[in-house]
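Chapter summary example.
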Amino acid sequence: MEDHSAVPDGEGESLFDAPLMAEQERMVEAVLFASAAPVTLRDLTARMPHGCNPAEALAHLRRKYEGRGVQVVKIGDTWAMRTAPDLGFLMQKETVESRKLSRAAIETLAIIAYHQPVTRAEIEEIRGVSVSRGTVDQLLEMEWIRLGRRKMTPGRPVTFVVTPQFLDHFGLESARDLPGLKELRAAGLLENRPPPGALALGDLDESDEEQPELFED
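The structure predicted for these 217 residues follows.
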């Protein structure tokens, strides 16, 4: 009697050695998840045990990921796992752009920090040049200075003072602990050479950093 369950030589061994399709899907999933770049069917075949069918495993896996946050997608002749297109906005993030202050802003900030509360006219008198609106607006936008009390002089001009955010950036408890040149340079606010005309900083040497008469609470 003929045995119909018999298979040609070699085929039985291959089928026996091949993992179940569910296991093949797990293998493909692991490779796609860990790969930095999309992979080809040839790559998958080379990595998986003898007798595996990565094409079929990909088809099953692709169906399983339909409607999920991550999908199995074909990119040319390669395959990869990608975020679902409608969820791409979740991968976006805001980045804080690091900006160095202009020399004018450095000088203005320094004068405010070491002579607060100070008016625009007083800043201009110390600097020897006018203070542009853009410079003040930049410091206000950074929330490193704010408007202080109006000065009890003719016209009652507004004054400027440094903010808690400014103090927090330098790890200070109060304006009396303002940093010197070394700290400002370390924070990237000053070049190694002080900008010309920066009176509040350029004329301040290490022995003058902690003079209390420069500050007002």
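To summarize the output: The longest strand covers residues 70-75.
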